[in-house]
Amino acid sequence: MKTLENPRVGVFVCECGGNISDVVDVKRVVKAASEWENVVVARHYTYMCSKPGVELIRQSIKKRGLNRVVIACCTPKMHRKMFERNVEEEGVNLAFLEVVNIREQCSWVHHEDPEGATLKAIDLIKGAVKKVEKATPLYPGKMPVKQAVLVIGGGIAGITAALRVAETGIKVYLVEKEPTIGGHMAKYAKVFPTLDCAQCILTPKMGEVAENTNIELLTLAEVVSVEGVPGDFKVKIKLKPRGVDVEKCVGCGACNRVCPVETVSDFDEGLGKRKAIYIPFPQAVPSAYVIDFNSCTKCGKCVEKCPRKAINLDDTEKEIEINVGAIIVATGFKLFDLSEYGEYKYGIHPNVITALQMERLMNVTGPTSGAIVRPSDGGEVKKIGYVLCAGSRDTNKGKPYCSRVCCLYAIKQALMMKEFMEGLDIWIHYIDLRAAGRRYEEFYKNAQIEGVKFVRGKVSEIIPDGDQLIVRAEDTTLGRPIENRYDLVVLCPPIVPSPEITKLAEILKIPLDEDGFVLEKHPKLDPVSTKREGIFACGVILGPKDIQTSVSEAEGAAAKAINFLIQKEKIIEPNKAYLATPEECDACGECIEVCPTEAISIASDKVEINEILCNGCGACIPACPKEALDLKGLSDEQLMAEIEGVLTGSESEIKILAFVENEIAYTALDLTGVARLSYPSSIRVIPVPSTSRLKLKHILYAFAKGADGIMFLEAPEHEGPFGKAHAIAEERIENYRFDIEDYDIDSVRIWFSKVYVPDWRKLVKVFETFDRMIKDEGPIDQETRENLLKKLEEESE
Amino acid sequence: MAKYAFFLGCIAPLRYPGLEAATKKVMQHFGIELLDLNGASCCPAPGVFGSFDLWNWLVIAARNLSLGESLGADLTTICNGCYATLQEAWHILKEDPGKRRSVNEILSKINRTYNAKTGIKHVIEVFTNDIGIDKIKSSVKNPLEGLKVAIHYGCHFLKPRKIRGHGSSEKPHILEDIVKALGAEPIYYKEKLLCCGAGGGVRAGNLDTALEITARKLKSVKEAGADCILHPCSFCHFQFDRGQVELRERKGLEFNIPVIHLVQLIGLAVGIDPKSLGLYENEIPPTYLDKLGLG
Fold first, then answer.
1. Cα–Cα–Cα angle for A43, A48, A52, nearest 5°?
2. CA-nearest residue of chain A to B192?
3. Is the Cβ of B98 closer than 8 Å to some Cβ of chain A?
4. Interval B37-67: pLDDT, tens
5. Does ipTM come in above 0.90?
6. What is the domain count for chain B?
């Protein structure tokens, strides 16, 4: 094991095949680094993450006796774990490795300012060198991983994931909000491009779920809270009353026949009727009736008729608690509400329907037993118009993205109708026909051969005329407006995330993207993991997609969950708060007040921090009036060293330090890089678990050492990983704003922002504004800085 | 009660002075003070001017807006075109301090400034916000019972939706609410959201095209059996009224659908004399007055 004494630092700068080196002058960076104290090796290389790159680092450790490694490359979220493993194999403890982000934070955001980007890279690397010099070794602990998985959502994605996990013998809890599993797919007539009957391929899978003894199915269920840590989640689930005992009900339907209440069928998308006691569809799982308590009058007729005494009209809500190691989110989608689109007359004229309603209309188990008739009068349908992108790819009122499956399902529905309705005229109004994917273009071609008419151009207005509808659209191929008269118009609205995800994401502490879909850990390379360890996702909740892709993702998410559980023992990250100077602690309890996970307790006359419960947010550290607490991996001493390093590496006009919360805000910052946005190079980032970890002395020290402005980018309380610590951060920084005035620093030099991942584009504006403000203020003069430093030294004595 | 500087625009004073008279009468009836806006120029027209020179369009609009600011009052208008220009210019200058500074540099040459403290309200907004539907309803002396009204919003009042802020531009209901409050019946017709034909310089540039659109609109109104077209815009008024004469002369098409501005319809319902509302000054005579027993 390499020891603390005599730091021997190696600095390795990645060119990222030009991604970095086209903007940042890596030669200059390496030269600057090689001149710093304790830096033994400084090298640059095309791809540090490649095998030869890693070998270069390992050989340098061996040959030059390095005991500290600083790698400047892409975001640490990308390769840090891999680098950690490699340097540890060479005997360098993970605490002695620093990964500096000079791609997402330099070259990708300062492409118009190579000089600024280079100076900033030098500063960031110097910060890391200084920080790593002061590091102490970290040793991860271990905890058992609960051998159970929670799958939320019982559509085709959730069903697939549950089955895959359960096959390995691992216990699965499958939570579904509806009375049956099956999701949207159970409503479809057929699937593209095979034209298989949807129910025929889905219901056997549903049956497997019912029969699998490793799967505990919880329908009419909703996750209400998740506590604990990855590997050991404690989940509370609310079970709404079903009114029917699933064990006793044999599905005879006697209750349904006597029920006097008729109401609108949600399963039929509002097109049909059903009773208050009903079964959504014959193959429902669990195969039992259910009472819709919103419309039930509790007349009791069904109770009398039920031969199995399975009905309980006084059934009540229950809450259960389960314990799982991993969670898979598969909550699916809903269709965008088209009421904003007055021009389409949806909800105004009954013959304007959604594609999902069309699925029910053409389904033999649907409200018309598969007969395609006008909903207004049951009249014959001779001509049908489809409106694709009815809200998708519309930045004005709808959604900016492509919903991906609409072109194909419209073609599917058209082909099905062509087959069984002779003489039917079908027109599909599209903007772009997107049939990318195996066998999809051929499917499209088929529809053209069958005589489906495809018109390129947007529909501007749908005008009711009795039972018919006049559709005004553009035909851009012929370059003229057209007007068609249809008996039925089918709208293809945007696919949006199921609304439950907003609350669920808060409960699970996983970020969503700008459109409300679950944000992947990495959009390309880790597409079914969420940003939180142990929580995975699959299906449409990650973005619109077809069944095939949803199923593939479900298989992937299941594999991820199984992998996560298979380790049996999970590593406890070592970056925790600890009592650094126990003799100072007088058990005043200030730290207990602020801890978001209740990890701190009083044992005899001192506080004690539970290593598993502590999440390393650092909120407790500034709370201690005696300065007895510290954070492993980012001690006060390391933080001071890093601040100094970042501010003294290069000469720049003005320097702004940004302390960035390491999950949500940092992710948002990375996204600005991925999108190649551009912001001023004065911004220098120091990642912290939460900005609540910062003491006033850190801020003053930064001003003394050369910062002209300091930003604090913090996760929102309900979305960040550390709950109330994020709120505490805001409170503290607001106080610091007043405190710095006592040291002759203007309060405008502090900026606090809450950062939501979906709002990442706004960060650029925030940076530009603060940069302009600080430039207007001008740099802090040397005398003020010296006085400040003197005061700080006096205070520490 | 509220006061407004009355921005007349070009059409009302030059072609349909009755509209100006009606507005003054109705506002007086509801106790809204209308100030004269001395020195007002063309708004300038959103389509014609704006399409050619957006910058000078903005400066001239800012000058008009500054006249209201000097009086300490928002402007009001009975024309959708004026509303479009002045509301949009107000919006731009309120949101963009940089543009405001540049505009004021030019305005300073004529010793004017505009700080976007006051703006403009369409007369519809005065009716719905300052007076209120309930007050209008309780002021009705001649309920317009049995009057079938084809409502025409005019494009510029509702669009662009995000800047205007009057809710859905495809499913509006403000005018329907007022018409119902007056006792009349708004009727559905197919071409309700179609342009009158005049806007965007089309009338000036290509009268035949403008009239084609007007004819399509009028045909749909006729089929629906309306007694009149109701609208909130001087320019639409001009196109529907004068346009019918032009359609008769140029294309031999006869519609004879009376055209009435919102201020006139409200004036009629609250008991103001039809003559002083300028109803007889239109090309198409107000035949609906007989139906209502007010002729």
1. 95
2. A463
3. no
4. 999 999 999 988 988 899 999 999 999 999 9
5. no
6. 2
